[in-house]
Amino acid sequence: MPFYDSGSSVLYVAGKGDGNIRYYEYTDDKLYLLSEYSSPEPQRGLGVMPKRGVDVGKCEVMRFFKVASNSLVEPVSFRVPRKAETFQADIYPPAHAGRPALSADQYFAGQDAEPVVVDMETLFRDGPLIVAGEAPAPASATKFVRCGTKPPPSEPSQSSPPPPPVATQSPVRRLSPAPQVALPVESETPPSPPPTAATITPAVMASNEEANRLRDENARLQAQLGQVQAQAGDAQQRAQRAEQAAADSEQSLRSVRAQLDDAVQKAAKDADALRAQVDAATQSVDEYKARLVKAEDSAKEHELNCQGLEKELRDAIEAANSLALAAEKAADSLQAAQ
């Protein structure tokens, strides 16, 4: 059993024998699941309160009358959880007034006309048009306007305003505001069981402006996703270029490593040659050291010989001096003898 609310673009779907009522947002020819009202009591049938009968002051957007048993009709209210004391124009566009725009003769004559609608702000000021136990209010009590036209400014009425909603003992005729889960209200009919209710999630469930904002946000996120994907493509290209550069660098590194290996091998050969030369030089040094030791020994021996010769020379000089003294003495003696 589908029920569509054109004011909030919400489709309510309920099944006979099922205790749940699912509601979807209809946008761009697509349905988006908003939430689900669950109840253990299955419904045998559902009726809908006309939009001009909802409680505008409590942000009620839909009211069902659920046939739960042979003797019980249970109201199920859907409200937007807002704490506002002013009229919420975004969730209450003009609703059908329940009056025909053409007579039967005009219709069969081929005439066409826009449907007659009622300004919901009037209901906010004066109360609902449908009250339990009463017929719809006459045209003089409420201003009706054609669809697509601006409602005329309200004028002070000399008649008394419509009476407020009245709750009766019969749950079938009780059209007063039903309680909800988020903002519970005490039932005005003590004999009836406590009615169940469902609430519409804030923003997207009853506010088309919030839905438009979410769609704009989705478009913005998609644009950002496109930019991120483009950046990811650029990053992938840069990564590929970096991989190619790394491959080239690796090839150059391999060439450098080969050249380094050749240089190391050449240096090792040169080092071996130098080691051989050093070994030969070391051997020559050892030989020179041995010869030096021999030369030192010869020099010491020559030094000892020189010392002996010096002694002999001194002895010879002393002997010569003695001979000279003796010669002088002999000369003196010779002279004296003459």
The gist of it:
Helices cover 42% and strands 17% of the residues.
Question: Explain this structure to me?
Answer:
The protein has helices spanning 104-108, 120-126, 208-337, and strands at residues 2-5, 10-14, 21-27, 30-37, 45-48, 60-69, 72-79, 95-96, 116-118, 144-146, 198-199. With 338 residues, the protein is α+β, with helices and mostly antiparallel strands. The strands form 3 sheets. The chain has a 4-stranded antiparallel sheet with strand order 1-2-3-4, with no helix packed on it. Strand 1 and strand 2 form a beta hairpin. The chain is rod-shaped. It starts with a strand and ends with a helix.
Strand order of the largest sheet: 1-2-3-4
Major sheet description: 4 strands, antiparallel
Return residue spans where pLDDT drops below 50 for at least 5 consecutive residues: 131-207
Any idea what the shape is?
rod-shaped
The overall strand count is 11
Topology:
Blueprint: E1 2-5, E2 10-14, E3 21-27, E4 30-37, E5 45-48, E6 60-69, E7 72-79, E8 95-96, H1 104-108, E9 116-118, H2 120-126, E10 144-146, E11 198-199, H3 208-337
Supply database-style keywords.
338 residues; 3 helices; 11 strands; four-stranded mixed β-sheet; alpha+beta
